[in-house]
Amino acid sequence: MTHSYPTLEDAVGQTPLVALQRIDAARNAQRGNVILAKLEGNNPAGSVKDRPALSMIRRAEERGEIKPGDTLIEATSGNTGIALAMAAAIKGYRMLLIMPEDLSVERAQTMKAFGAELILTPKSGGMEYARDLADQMVAQGKGRVLDQFANPDNPRIHYETTGPELWAQTGGRITHFVSAMGTTGTITGVSRFLKEKNPAIQIVGAQPDEGSRIPGIRKWPQEYLPKIYDPSRVDQVVNVSQDEAEEMARRLAREEGIFGGISAAGALWVALEVSKTVENATIVFVVCDRGDRYLSTGVFPA
């Protein structure tokens, strides 16, 4: 009898949850609060987006909408593109990724390493232009868009995996969940699960201040608001500035040994703001990806 070994797909999820030990430690201890980091950079392609990327492909296959050999198209600012490039490599798809030209060189190189083809769009058009171009290419019959912004299989995987992991890892003690808001899949799916377990759990979204550019966090114009986003699932939205997020990214690495991305640091900044207003709370924030994805941006001093 042959032994069945796990595949790379089986390595997605079940990421560690670790307690912060130094940042604002005295004040948190005084108030009886604990802040926990969900290390999604431990996924095989390095981010929380590994979960929805595989989920969207797997579910589309189950419904007979796509099959190996097909061309998939996606507009992405980075992590979803990397995760989809990995998933396409695992499952045998041609992957076309459309992204604004100003995104970090590490992310573009990583997508290409997985075999994806890149189409760069003007920086001035932002993600909105990239999303419009993806829709045009589908209309021209050039492939199929999974559409992370409107695909219910995005939040669904967080309802099925991320939420239950957090509940189990905190022994049901979680009181606040803080997440950066980009496609909003993570916050929407996790909120649905946690609120079913305990409606009193507070769901807090991190959004960038006006004029701030924080990779992975967006404040969308109304007409581009992700269709998967359900505002009723988010109790509070807190704005964080680019400077605050970047400084917190450096502190997170130096003081906690957690080398996370800038959106993760933005979520931590918001978690610390929440911590100032509550007592005896278990506050979880998502470390969406790893800091080495941002080295060329100059956030981390050379």
Automatic annotation (TrEMBL):
Annotated GO MF terms: cysteine synthase activity
Residue numbers binding pyridoxal 5'-phosphate: N79, G182, T183, T184, G185, T186, S263
PANTHER family, alphabetized: CYSTATHIONINE BETA-SYNTHASE
E.C. numbers: 2.5.1.47
Keywords for the protein's UniProt record, in alphabetical order: Amino-acid biosynthesis, Cysteine biosynthesis, Pyridoxal phosphate, Transferase
Organism: Xenophilus arseniciresistens
Domain Tryptophan synthase beta chain-like PALP: 9-289
NCBIfam families: cysKM, cysM, PRK11761.1
Gene that produces this protein: cysM
GO annotation, biological process: cysteine biosynthetic process from serine
Protein name from the UniProt record: Cysteine synthase
N6-(pyridoxal phosphate)lysine found at: K49
Amino-acid biosynthesis as UniProt keyword: yes
